[in-house]
Every structure is written in C-alpha cells, then in structure tokens.
Amino acid sequence: MSSDYNSPAFKKLLKRLQEESWQLELIISGFAIFGLFTAFGPISEAAEAAQNKQQLASTIILMIAVISCAILIFNLLLHVVLRGLWIGALGLRYVSGEIDYEALNYSEKFTKYLKKRVGSFDKYVARLENYCSVIFAISFLLIFYVLAITFTIITIVIIATLIIDNDSLPETLRTVIGVGLILFIILGMIFTFIDFITQGWLKRKKWLSKIYFPIYWVFSFITLSFLYRPLVYNFLDNKFGKRLSFVLLPVYFVILILTSMKYKPSNYFEKADYSSEISASRSNYLDLIKEDNGLIDEFAISSKAVTTPYLNIFMEFTDDVEDYVFSFNPDLKPDKDKRGLRSDIILINENNWSTITKKRKTYLKTLNEVFSIRIDSTDYDSEFILSESNHENLGFETFVNIKNLDEGKHLLKVLKKRIKDGDTAKYLACNIPFWYFKD
After folding, report:
1. What pLDDT does 160 receive?
2. Pairing with 421, which of 77, 208, 285, 335 sits 20 to 30 Å away (CA)?
3. Which string of DSSP letters, residue by residue, matches 347-371?
4. Do 219 and 192 meet the contact criterion of CB atoms below 8 Å apart?
5. Least confident of 163-167, 278-282, 304-308
C-alpha cells in the first residue's frame, strides 16, 4: 500500500482515516494520560536517586523520561479538553444549527461586531478541530526536540571523553581534533537553533544555505531529525501550525516559571536541604528515610536521637567513592571499567573467586584509609564493610562506640582524604547532628 500512495484508493483511505482520527486520538490520549500520571512519580524518584548516586547515564535517561512525561501530560490534557469542547460544539450544532444573529435581536452595532468577531459557528467547530489535531501531533514532535537537545549534549560529552581526555592519543592531536569538533558542534547548535526559531531563514538565503547545508546534514544524524522531518515541514508549510508553534513556546515558558514558584516562610530559612551544625536534613537519618520512602544524601545515621551505646553510620555507594579508592590505590583500577549500564548476562568470568575476594578486601582496606569518623573534636576508629541500608541502598556500614559521650547534642563529621598538588589532606565530607541519651 505504501508504494501506491499516489493512487486514488489510498488517498480516499487517508481521507476517511482523517475524518475518524478523533476517536483514536481520544483513546490514545486517555490511556497515555493514565499511564503517564502513574509513571511520573516513580520515574521522578528514580531520576533523583540516580542523581544522588551520581550515575550519569541513568540520570540522563531518566531526566529525558521525566521531561517527556511532563510535556505529554500537559499537551494531552489540553487536547482532551479541547476535543471535549469540540464534541460539545458538534452536539450543540446538531440541536441548534448555525448562530442566528437576527434572532438574538441585538442592536445593529453589536450584531455587526459579533458577526465580525464571532462569525460562523461552523468556522468555530473547524478551528477547534484544527487545534486538536495539531496539538495532538505536536505533543510527540516535542519529545523528539527534547531528544535532539539531549543527543547534542551527549555528543559533546563523548568527544570530550573519547578524544580530549584520551591519554592514548598525542596531546596536541587530541586537543586540536577534540576542540575543533566541539567548536563545530557548538556553532552547529547555534545555527540550527537560529534556523529553527526563524523557521528556515538560513535555508532561504542562497549563500548562507551553502554554509549551513553541511551543518544541517551532520545534525540531521546527531538529532535524529531524519525520523521526524516530514512532521516538521508539514507544520512549517501551514500558517496555522506556525502560529500555534509560536503560541505554545511562551506557554511552556510561563508554565515553567509558575511551577517553580513557592512560598517562602522566612528570609533566612526555607527547608533543611542538608545537615550541618545548625540544620538536620531528613535524608541523613535512616529511620526518617524509611518512614517517608526518601533518599540518602551520601551519609546517614540511625536516627536523630540515639539511645544505644553505639552509633550506626551508613555511607551510600556512588561512583565518586570508587574513584577516590582508585586514586589512593591505582592497582585496584581495572583495565576495563565495568560501571554504568551493563547486562547481567555473563559469558566469561574473567577473574576467579580467590582473586575477587582478595581485591575486595584490599578495596575495603583502602576505603577505611580514605574515610574517617570524628564526633565533635574526637577521632574514632571505624571499619566500613559492604552492606545495605534499611531502604535497600547499597553502601558501606560501620558502628562506632559512643558509650563515653556526654548526653546532649553532638556533631558527627565524616572526613575524606584528598590528593591535591601531590599532597594528601583531609577535608569535611559531611556534618550530621544527633542527640545522645543513655537508655
């Protein structure tokens, strides 16, 4: 059938599908809205968790999903409302027909004004139909725009990682090639954005189009625009589609501003986002994290009020932790880094069990040399081991003897070694206040 797209039968089929497409639009919108509202919360939480754990690949993927969900929810809800209004208008037209301005018996001035401004009821129904169809189509086109921006940023990151930071290449060569490619991508982004905002102005100018064409060709692959280009040009050759595109962009901007607004109760305090000597964040106490299904902020202790003669300290596993271990013990760094999104299917086991066990012990030994515990001004011995929190977060856990502490408020400090300019120094990784009362 696709080879006969010029045949009268195919065009007749398309016309019939166009006339009945509103039913499919409503069905798809209804199921999509339900699914999006169901998935939005868990995806947002997963994105926040991945960000806290500094998992770059997962964070990017989940943030794309969150943004896409938000765009689709707004557009599809708007589509359903307008489509409902359209159905209502059709029902009213069946009962009442066209608007009879003479029957309203208004003055001549109002009658002329309403005929000019309101016009035909059929025109109003047709306009609603156009709005509904265009908004439904543009909803999914906007997702491709989000992906295009994301893939462009990923391309810059890949160039920086594989070329500029690649020690196996000569420094001059990798700098020249890497910086050149990044400058090309950045200039390409600017030209593509200008062409997008002006709706093809660079393509209309003869001499500019020759310069812009190679950039357009490269970015068609980077942004995957070859997949949705017919939709874009179908919008651009229609005045109604152009106007609606320009209207939706400021609407999204206004919505972004409105959703970022919040009430501030104080000039100095908003909420306890982090723990310090004068604040206590819920994300640093395991009992509160479990209670509200929250996320750990790197380090956490059992609770604010401690009545046991020991203090339970949990350190979340992040990529940074492993990088710090590797910086102090380069022998632990594998030739091939297996971190990131990987398949659980193992074809060949590269290491035997005894080797893995030995490396794990060395890893934990190095970890305990890098991180140390201090309460108030006193250093404490600690021995972190691999564990899971009561919220099933993978990390490292230790217990510190505090039976000799005085009752009252205390401040836990986790110190971390850092190599800078060839020297090793300790700096503060976190502060967590707690209150100790003997049971």
Report:
1. 81
2. 335
3. S---S-HHHHHHHHHHHHHHHHHHE
4. yes
5. 163-167
Instruction: Tell me the C-alpha distance between 371 and 415, whole Å.
Output: 6
DSSP per residue, 82-144: HHHHHHHHHHHHHHH-S--HHHHT--HHHHHHHHHHT--HHHHHHHHHHHHHHHHHHHHHHHH
Question: Hey, what are 297's tokens?
Answer: 């902020």
Quick one: pLDDT at residue 1?
A: 46
> What order do you get walking across the sheet with 385-388 strand by strand?
299-301, 310-316, 394-401, 385-388
Q: What is the pLDDT of residues 369-386, one digit of tens each?
A: 889 899 998 888 878 988
Q: Which CATH architecture has domain 282-333+355-436?
A: Sandwich (2.60)
Is residue 334 within 8 Å of 70, Cβ to Cβ? no
The pLDDT tens digits of the residues spanning 71-80 come to 888 888 888 8
Determine the straight-line distance between the first and last CA of the chain, rounded to whole angstroms: 80
Q: Tell me how far apart the alpha carbons of residues 388 and 383 are, in angstroms, rounded to a whole number.
A: 15
CA distances, 233 to each of 141, 176, 195, 405 (Å): 12, 37, 13, 72
The runs of H, that is alpha helices, within 160-205 are 171-197, 201-204
Per residue in 146-184, pLDDT (tens digit) is 888 888 888 888 888 778 777 677 778 878 888 888 888
Q: Which residue has the tokens 């690949």?
A: 57
CA of 196: how far to CAs of 93, 95, 184, 288, in Å?
40, 45, 18, 48
CA distances from 260 to 142, 253, 256 (A): 21, 11, 6
Annotated domain spans of the chain: 17-260, 282-333+355-436
Nearest to 62 by CA among 45, 38, 79: 45
Identify which has the larger pLDDT, 416 or 195: 416
